[in-house]
Amino acid sequence: MDLRELELFGTLMRVGTTTETARLLGISQPGVSGQLKRLESRLGVSLFHRTGNRLEPTHEANELFALAVPIFNTHALIRSKLPALRNLASRPVSVSATPALVEGFIGPILIRAGYRNWKKRIVLRVHSPEDDLRSGEADIGLQMALPPKAEFQAYKIGHIPLVAVLRKDHPLAQMKELTCAAVSTHPLVCYNADWSPMGGTIRAAFTAQGLSYDPACVVPFCANVCSMVRACGGVGIVDAMTVRDYVMQGLVSRPIMDIPNVSIIAFHRRNEPLRAPVQDLLTALRKPVA
FRET label pair with 47: which of 38, 74, 187, 215, CA 20 to 30 Å apart? Predict the structure, then answer.
C-alpha cells in the first residue's frame, strides 16, 4: 500500500462511508469506490462489507488498520506541525552586523537577494554579532573578523582596506599615501587590540614594522574613531566604508600602504539546520559580485 492508498483506507475505517470519505479527501464518491476496488484487488483480500449505507471492516481490514495506526498518528502529527513550520518559514531573517557593514555593505546584497521594495522582511541588529547568534537573537552574523571556529560556520565574503582618517588641517593630509611609520609619529585614535580583531590587525602591522602600537584614545567602534578625530584631532584608522560618511564633515582619508585588507565574514551557528529564507540570504552573501 502506498501513502495515498493508506490515506483512503484509513479514512474509510474512520468514517465508514464512501460519501464522507470522498468529501474529506476532495474526490468523487465513484472515485473512492473505484480506488477501494482496485486496492482490494491488488491486496487479494476483501476489506469491507456493505451494510446499508455503511462499510463494515472485515477481520483483515482491522488487522491492517492496527498495523497502520502508527503511520496515521505520524501523519496527523505532521499535519498539526505544519502551521508552526509555515509561521517559522515566514519569520523575518535576523542579521546582526557591525555598524560599518550595515551602513556600507549589506544594501546591495539585500537587493540581489530579493529584498528590493521590501518584498521580503528582515531584522537588522547593530550589536555584537557573535553574542546575538549565541543568544538566538540573530540568524546570520556579519563582521570583519573570524568568529570562534568551534561555535560558528564562517565564510569570507569580501575584503576592504583600512585607511587613515584625519582632519583636513592635519599635516599628513597633504600626503596622498601613508605608512604605519608616518602614522605612528602622531597621536593615534584606535582600538584595544586585545579584544578588537581590527585592533589586532593594526597592532600586528605596526609590530611588523618595528613600531609601538599605543593609541592615545582607545574606542570600541570605527564611527567612534571618526567622531574623536573630528573633535580632538590625531590620526584614526578605520575601514574604508565607515569613512565615507565623514568626508563631508571636515575629515579626509588616506590609504595606509603597509596594513593588509580586512576580511568581511558571514557566519551562522555550527551544526544547526538553517531556515529556507536564511539559507537564501546566506547564498546571496556568498555569491561573488559580478
Answer: 74
Number of other CB atoms surrounding residue 121 within 10 Å = 11
pTM of the predicted model over 0.85: no
Show the CA angle centred on residue 122, arms to residues 261 and 154, nearest 5°.
40
CA distance 178 to 176: 7
- Whether the CB-CB separation of 288 and 178 falls below 8 Å is answered with no
On whether both 17 and 102 belong to a single domain, the answer is: no
d(CA 36, CA 24): 15
Residue whose C-alpha cell is 491488488: 42
* pLDDT score at 288: 67
What cell does 136 get? 538566538
* Consecutive 10-residue averages of pLDDT for the chain (290 residues): 90 93 93 93 92 90 93 90 84 90 83 86 90 95 88 93 94 96 96 86 94 94 88 94 77 94 94 91 79
Count of Cβ atoms closer than 10 Å to residue 3 Cβ: 9
Q: The domain that contains 222 carries what CATH number?
A: 3.40.190.10
Q: Are 234 and 188 in contact (CB under 8 A)?
A: yes
Q: Which residues contact 122 (CB under 8 A, 6 or more apart)?
A: 92, 93, 94, 95, 110, 115, 281
Cα angle vertex 21, ends 19, 25, to 5°?
A: 120
pLDDT of residue 248: 65
| β pairing state of 93-97 and 122-126 | parallel
> Number of folded domains in the chain?
3
Q: Please give the residue range of the domain that contains residue 13.
A: 3-86
**Tell me, what DSSP letter sits at residue 146?**
P
pLDDT tens readout for residues 153-203: 999 998 999 999 999 999 999 999 999 999 999 999 999 888 887 888 899
At 61, which helix (H) or strand (E)?
A: helix 59-90
